[in-house]
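Try it yourself: sequence plus cytidine-5'-triphosphate, in.
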Amino acid sequence: MDKPKVVLGVSGGIAAYKACELLRRFTESGHDVRVVPTASALHFVGAATWSALSGNPVSTEVWDRVEEVPHVRIGQHADLVVVAPATADMLAKAAHGLADDLLTNTLLTARCPVVFAPAMHTEMWEHPATQENVATLRRRGAVVVEPAVGRLTGVDTGKGRLPDPAEIFEVCRRVLARGVREPDLAGRHVVVSAGGTREPLDPVRFLGNRSSGKQGYALARTAAARGARVTLVAANTTGLPDPAGVDVVPVGTAVQLREAVLKAAADADAVVMAAAVADFRPAVYAAGKIKKKDGQDPEPIVLVRNPDILAEISADRARSGQVIVGFAAETDDVLANGRTKLARKGCDLLVVNEVGERKTFGSEENEAVVLGADGSETPVPHGPKEALADTVWDLVAARLG
Ligand code: CTP
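Structure, out:
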């Protein structure tokens, strides 16, 4: 099989150096990469680096090897074009169809999916001109990854950092896997909860669960790759990198998770509750560490109920037509329990999977049945958590119309 052909466009920002790592990830995982930098990008990283790392010739303009008509061929033959970093100037040119160098020509001739990973100073990102250009590109079907928040070129910090190359690579991998399809969640805001809540007993102990957060992260990543604006409410998922272009809200307890989900759900088109929320929390939080006392039995731990967030957001939808998805981890009578739970929670879809000590928790794979309130049943065979995530978004997108 031919290697997938990727065009890596690099425009002139300091984050150009990070594109070297993105390039390596593509080449090491069997992609044929043609790097097309802008002339400004070469001020940051030279042509020799791009050429040596990609094993392909590098040019910034249309006048090299004219007999090969590169300004048309490169775009026409690509399976994916990714521009990382995409400067404010590059976004403006792409949005207006300007074509004054090889990269902008390539963007006009490409009919494959296009991903932009912008990087710039916060002021430039927030400027209405840039925001309108981004909206135009998204409306036309490009995936524009939200920049990360953090340290910028100088001492300043804010929104505008290039997301981690590993995460941009994940977005590209998902976009490539789906082929030339419309980013069907473009213009949508989706909320995903992930991980497991921890209910503190005292400053050092908590009641928790085994959820790793990986399924929720896969949902967030795939939604972003399908063009959605994503808010990921993450309960105790330290160790998992923030997915590129996703707004991550870290929380600890069920009460905090409820607050964050309700806030984000106010303008959301869909909410997916993949988090394992503790049903109970200790009635009393001991401000000091609970000590054992010689000769005495330990005090029993009294629990109180936590709010049922899924049932609450299903009963009290923030917007009409909002699609709500729950997850159910069951050990016995999986489908029957799933149907009962779907009715009890009042959500539109319930992803039911069988769990046990060695099943699902922390693994990279999953197997499930998605039950619909309309009586539908969609089995998802054993496979990567991202495949299950894409099935969930297919079902959500169909319900959003
Ligand atoms: N959930 C929630 N709030 C809770 C508990 C669970 O929103 N307090 C959500 C989970 O995020 C998940 C779904 O409800 O999407 C199902 O969770 P599960 O624990 O299986 O359901 P329970 O109602 O707790 O049922 P069970 O009696 O089986 O524990």
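One thing you can check immediately is this: The mean pLDDT is 93.
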